[in-house]
Fold this sequence. Notes:
Blueprint: H1 10-14, H2 17-26, E1 31-32, H3 33-40, H4 44-56, E2 60-65, E3 68-73, H5 79-86, H6 89-119
Antiparallel strand pairs: 1-3, 2-3
Helix pairs in contact: 3-4
Amino acid sequence: MARAATTSDAFNAIAEPQRREILVLLQGGERPVTELARDLGMSQPQASKHLRVLREVGLVQVRGAGKQRLYDLDARGLRPVHEWLGGFERFWSGSFDRLDEYVQDLKQARRKESSDGNDQ
């Protein structure tokens, strides 16, 4: 079975760890490809390839500044990912609430054990 093209949507594009790293770096503002490549420890052509995929799915924008091309994050492209993940928010919130209750119960039990031990 043929694999889906990595340029088809944001989900496929961010499945690649180095592309996610690029997005993290671009949170700090626009940067040239040479800087991104250096910070990621990859060649400029490799970084350019990843940036092309991110640009095609609408996760980065590019503008020319003299001889440089500056890339900037366009987080609006992550909206489908955010909306999809939001469906799991109730699950995680419930899990964390149950974990918090469990921790509080443990603390209470330890306090009770300590106070019972001091009474003897």
